[in-house]
Amino acid sequence: MNVNLLRTWLRAWALITVVDAIFATTLPVVAYHQPLGRVWQGVASMLLGRGAQFDTPTILFGLVMHASVALLWTSVFMVLAVISPRLRRIVATPAGILGVATLYGPLIWIVMSLVVIPPFSHRPATIGERWWIQLFAHIPFVALPIVATIGRGLRSTEGVVHAHPVGDAA
């Protein structure tokens, strides 16, 4: 992998991990009056089970899980952008970045809340006020940092991206 692509990918992953972690930590405390760190205990309980303790190791495990999921969604977008000249052209402009983020953020939340989380929580998603808040919050706090960072990074390496579009044999 090209060093500039690697830097772009890592920068996007670090940014989304931090930005979304701040939002995900703050929202439950401010809006729902939950204890600081409770959200990360909830994240950890997806793998540790409902009996996950509300303690520092569990909170840290939840943060590691969060960083892993952030890496996954950053990687998905990076691969799509590298193999698609059209997507690279779209995210080369501020309007394109915002437009793509407006689609990618809700897509991430829909997949996570309706497909990924239910098998671990053993219950279906509850589509209510909090679900809708998360849907829209995934635009500025999840997708926008990913799309903007990768869009800018690929633009700065445009002469070095040697990926062929899907279906292009040449």
Mind explaining what this structure looks like?
The chain is an all-alpha fold. The chain has one domain. Helix content is 77%, strand content 0%. It contains six helices and no strands. Helix 1 runs antiparallel to helix 6 and helix 2 crosses helix 3 (56-83). It is globular, with a radius of gyration of 17 Å. The model has no long low-confidence stretch (mean pLDDT 91).
Which helices and strands, and how do they pair?
Blueprint: H1 3-32, H2 38-48, H3 56-83, H4 85-90, H5 94-121, H6 129-156
Helix pairs in contact: 1-3, 1-6, 2-3, 3-6, 5-6
Features:
170 residues
Count of domains: 1
Total number of strands: 0
**Overall shape:** globular
Helix content: over 70%
Average pLDDT for all residues: 91
Assign the structural class, choosing from mainly alpha, mainly beta, alpha/beta, alpha+beta, or little secondary structure.
mainly alpha
Topology order in helix (H) and strand (E) letters: HHHHHH
Helix count from the secondary structure assignment? 6
The largest pleated sheet is described as:
none
Compute the separation of the termini in Å: 20 Å
Strand content: under 5%
pLDDT < 50 runs, ≥5 residues: none
Radius of gyration, in angstroms, nearest whole number: 17 Å
Short description:
This protein is mostly helical and 170 residues long. The chain has helices at residues 3-32, 38-48, 56-83, 85-90, 94-121, 129-156.
